[in-house]
Each structure stands twice: as structure tokens, then as C-alpha cells.
Amino acid sequence: MIKSMTGFGRGESSDEIHNFNVEIRSVNHRYNDIVLKMPKHINYLEEKVKECIKNKISRGRIEVYINLEYIDDSAIEVKVDLLLAKAYKNALDDLIDKLGMLDDVKLSHILNFSDIVKTERKELDEDKTWACLNLAVEEALNNLINMRIKEGLILKSDLETQLDVMYDIIEKIEERSPLVVKDYKKKLELRIKEILNVDYIDEERLAYEVAFFADKSDINEEVIRLKSHIKQFKESLEDEEPVGRKLDFLIQEMNREINTIGSKANDLVISNCVVAIKSQLEKIREQVQNIE
């Protein structure tokens, strides 16, 4: 089944230390472009997160937002630089003495120096951290994929409708094509009679000219290939694998065939049909841009 490249998914996972909240958004893109925003101290897990995504999504711009809260305060360590604190106190005492101020150095004064107290994350078990994060990533991915599938079903239905409309127009071209040669023969015969002002025409010469025109304007092969491409397109919509690039290629091929038909068929009715098909193909192309 086809999937849209647009979607959103959220996942959450907790253990006795971590609480992970993961949000994943995706939009259309030619390649698999993954952008991660996560706490710096767990950047070592970035490649594992990307690998999870690549295993399930082959195309699109994927934006991943990972938020981590620690449940257990044992994961946080507060360090105080006592030597630096004493140095600051001695310097402040000396300054007060030299300025002749009647004041004392208080703890609040020393704490204004941000380099005295530092908060650090303790060394955590990498496997345990990943196990918790992986659950949240998988949940967010599954929710994202479900949304992409739902939107894919809507796209599939719309594409099938557009293809049916296009097929009907092609059949009109097919019905009209034999009449073009007959109309050309009648017009050519009348024109020759008008120009030469005669009632008799060399039938052999006329047949030659009509045969030449018929060969030059024959669009039977192009119509057959165009119908074949539409059939392939519809069959591809049922594939389980990502088909976005394949559908894009088929659209290019259909455009090539309809352009050839337009250049060969010297007929107003067929020309109008060609314009209508090009309009349908453009609508289809826009939809395909959002298929994985």
C-alpha cells in the first residue's frame, strides 16, 4: 500500500530513572533526510535513533524531537569547588578591608559566581538509557506510519479517480484517430478540386498523399503505451514497497507519449484531449510528490 510522506507521531516511555517524550514529524522530500534535536549528553544515541527510522521509513524529511526528564535525582550530581569558593571569599574580604566597608561576605555573595557550583549528569548505563528511549521512538514511529498510511489511502483513491478520467479521454482519442484520416482525405479532395477547378482527381496520387498523412499521424503505438503506463501505475498503487520514485518515472513516460500524440495528430479534437490529459497528469504529479 502507498504511504504519504506527511505525518506526525508521539511516543513516551519511562523507567525508574528516565522519562522520554519523542515527537516525529515528516514532510515530503526526495531523499531520506533525518534531523534530530535531543539533549547533548545523550548524543551518543543519535545513530541508533536514525537507524530505527531508516528501517521503517525510506523517504521524506523526518524531524525528531527528543525530550528527557530524570525521575530519580540520583542521576544528577552537584559539585562544589571549595578551593575556588575560599579564594572568592578571601578576595571579597580583602576588598571590603581595603575599601573600609562595614560589611561581611555572605554565602549569597559567593553563589553569584556561577563557576563555584556545577550540575552534572552521572555516568548512566548506555544500554538502559537506550532501552527506554527505543520504546518511545518505536511508539512515535508507529503512530507516524499509521498516519502516513491513512493519508496514503486518501491519495490512492484520488489518484485512481484521476487515472480513470485520463483513461476515458484516451479512449476518445482512440475513437477519433481513424476519423482524422478520413476527414483529411475529404478536405484534401475538396481543396484540390477548388484549386485546379476540376471534377476529376488522380485517385492514385490522392491515395498516396492520404497514405503518407496516415503514416505520419499514426498514434496507435503511443496510445497503447499510454494505456500500458496507466495500468502499471494502478498496479504500483497496490505494492507494499515504497513506489514514489517509480510513479514519478511513469508520469514522465506518460508525458512523453502524450506530447508525441499532440505533435503527430493534426486534429483539433485530439489536441483538446491532449490538453485535458496534460491537466490530469499535472494533478497526478502533484499528488505523487507526497508519496513515499
From TrEMBL:
Reported cofactor(s)? a divalent metal cation
One Pfam family hit: YicC-like_N
Q: What InterPro entries does the entry give? A: YicC-like_C (IPR013551), YicC-like_N (IPR013527), YicC/YloC-like (IPR005229)
**Keyword presence, Amino-acid biosynthesis:** no
Q: Where is the Endoribonuclease YicC-like C-terminal domain?
A: 173-292
Domain of life, source organism: Bacteria
The Endoribonuclease YicC-like N-terminal domain covers which part of the protein?
2-156
GO: which molecular function terms?
A: hydrolase activity; RNA endonuclease activity
Write the record's keywords in alphabetical order, separated by commas: Endonuclease, Hydrolase, Nuclease
The record, for PANTHER family, names: UPF0701 PROTEIN YICC
What protein family does this chain belong to?
A: Belongs to the YicC/YloC family.
Name this polypeptide is given:
Uncharacterized protein (TIGR00255 family)
